[in-house]
Write a structure and sequence with these properties.
Length: 124
């Protein structure tokens, strides 16, 4: 069992950088694939990035590839999302999620546990 809490969201200007953190409880953190999703007002929740158990493999949605970096520190039970060159289109609530499976997970139903979300607003 794992519990997730996101932090680091806020209001920034276009072109700025921001780092989100997701703190997890429990000794089994390293057993989970971790992902980030986002949801804009009136829109569905969509995949952003994922990282495997050891941190050796990462996956990104095309619109953020080259700008966002997902990483994890299993010793600290924390996963991060470094966001660079932010655009107004990145404005959304960002959610951290954990998946028991070790395969690629890019759909919301593949994740077992979710955080409460943190708001990111990018002004132009």
């Amino acid at each position: 069992q794992v519990q997730l809490v996101e932090s680091g969201g806020g209001l920034v200007q276009a072109g700025d950088s921001l780092t989100l953190s997701c703190a997890a409880s429990g000794r089994t953190f390293s057993s989970y694939t971790m992902g980030w999703f986002r949801q804009a007002p009136g829109m569905q929740r969509v995949f952003v990035a994922a990282i495997t158990r050891s941190g050796g493999s990462t996956y990104y949605e095309d619109s953020v590839k080259g700008r966002f970096t997902i990483s994890r520190d299993n010793a600290k039970n924390t996963v991060y999302l470094q966001m660079n060159s932010l655009k107004s289109e990145d404005t959304a609530v960002y959610y951290c999620a954990a998946s028991v499976g070790g395969l690629v997970a890019v759909r919301a139903y593949q994740y077992d546990t979710w955080g409460q979300g943190t708001q990111v607003t990018v002004s132009s």
